[in-house]
Design brief:
The chain has 3 domains: about 40-100, SH3 Domains (SH3 type barrels, Roll); about 105-160, SH3 Domains (SH3 type barrels), CATH 2.30.30; about 180-350, Glycoside hydrolase/deacetylase (TIM Barrel), CATH 3.20.20.370. Helix content is about 25%, strand content about 25%. It has 10 helices and 23 strands. The strands form 7 sheets. The protein has a 5-stranded antiparallel beta sheet with strand order 8-7-6-3-9, with no helix packed on it. A 5-stranded antiparallel beta sheet has the order 15-14-13-10-16, with no helix packed on it. A 5-stranded parallel beta sheet has the order 19-18-17-23-22. β13 (about 135-140) and β14 form a beta hairpin.
């Protein structure tokens, strides 16, 4: 089964002996495979046959030269990749490809010493100012980057650089440039089954949600089930943005400390939602350092306060075109029946919701959303 087939599976949780949630191991493993992020492209390390199916038993369509970069479309349970090359699509062995993880350039998130070797034990060659983009030449096993700056090359710490550049977008409506409503959900779902039910319903009913889980939430689900909920949501055509690691009010923190809260186990992307929607100059500095734009909301259901399904649905259903609606994954809006009602109520007023992602052309089946959101969301 390929990735797109596996994501259609619904995980089942049943009460354990002590009433705790118990996941079916086989289904969890299938979701794990489905949630593993596909690389955007691969480079062949040998002259490689592209075949009509994911094993050597299938016929050869053509041979891809060594060193060729090809676009990835899917991955089979065997590990073979479905790729696009020469106007055709077919399958290649994962044993003769590599994923390039070296960025072309990085941007400094602090004034940063460039050294003669990949650690602080080496001498300083220059100091690179905050916000400078430098060309990447190599990367050491320590994670440090070899870069080019001011006519010389040297090494800089990977802890103080980013590959993202904050996009320009309105704070309350983000990258939604359409008249459609974006339904967004913060924090953390109660269970894996509830999470999977909501995103599966959204994918099946052409709804593109924006999810903002905390880093602690992502770590918890990885620890409990071995499932990356951010990757799983993307696999079902949903968008995922940053919401910090532990959900503190960022305003009392320094720019550097707040920037650290936006990294770590949090979602690594180019849009983020500050906890509590709290923003000041220091918070803006932190988002700029990590290359993220701030995306808050234009309509708050206050579902955390009302704790009422009917009120939450009614408030979300009152959204106007282009609204970003705030809800939370642990409350009543994040469920198939609530999503159904909200979409139907909005449609009755002539207002549409953001659509599930179907690629840049907006056609065909629901596909995996990219890690970085586009400047204009294809709603």
């Amino acid at each position: 089964m390929g990735v797109l087939g596996a994501v259609a599976l619904v995980i089942s949780l049943a009460p354990g002996p002590q009433g705790s949630a118990r996941a079916d191991t086989a289904v969890v493993q299938q979701i794990q495979r489905a949630a593993t992020a596909l690389p955007a492209s691969l480079t062949t390390t040998a002259n490689l046959n592209m075949r009509s199916g994911p094993s050597t038993a299938y016929r050869i369509l053509l041979t891809i030269p060594s060193g060729t970069t090809v676009k990835v479309l899917d991955r089979a349970s065997t590990g073979w990749y479905k790729v696009s090359y020469g106007g055709l699509s077919g399958w290649i062995s994962n044993a003769y490809v590599k994923v390039s993880t070296l960025p072309a350039s990085v941007r400094t998130t602090a004034s940063l010493n460039m050294r003669s070797g990949p650690s602080t034990a080496y001498r300083i060659l220059a100091t690179i100012p905050l916000g400078t983009t430098v060309k990447v030449l190599d990367r050491a096993s320590t994670g440090w980057y070899k870069v080019s700056y001011a006519g010389i090359s040297g090494w800089i710490s990977n802890l103080y650089v980013t590959t993202s550049t904050a996009p320009s977008a309105p704070q309350s409506t983000g990258p939604n440039r359409t008249s459609r409503v974006v339904l967004t959900f913060d924090d953390c779902p109660r269970t894996l089954s509830a999470f999977n039910a909501a995103i599966t319903y959204a994918a099946d009913h052409n709804m593109g949600l924006v999810l903002a889980p905390t880093g602690d939430c992502i770590s918890s689900f990885k620890s409990r089930y071995g499932v990356d909920i951010a990757a799983l949501a993307r696999a079902k055509g949903q968008w995922v943005i940053n919401h910090s690691v532990s959900h503190p009010d960022l305003r009392p923190l320094s720019c550097a400390a707040a920037a650290a809260e936006l990294g770590g186990t949090g979602v690594h992307t180019n849009f983020g939602r500050p906890p509590y929607g709290a923003v000041d100059a220091s918070v803006r500095c932190a988002y700029d350092r990590v290359g993220m734009a701030i995306w808050t909301w234009s309509r708050d259901t206050e579902d955390w306060s009302t704790k009422s399904k009917s009120i939450t649905v009614a408030r979300a259903s009152a959204a106007q075109p282009r609204d970003t609606v705030l809800m939370h994954m642990q409350w009543y809006g994040f469920a198939p029946d609530s999503l159904r009602q909200i979409k139907a109520n909005l449609a009755a007023r002539g207002v549409q919701v953001c659509r599930a992602y179907r690629g840049t052309d907006g056609a065909g089946a629901v596909v995996r959303t990219p890690q970085l959101l586009p400047a204009s969301l294809p709603c």
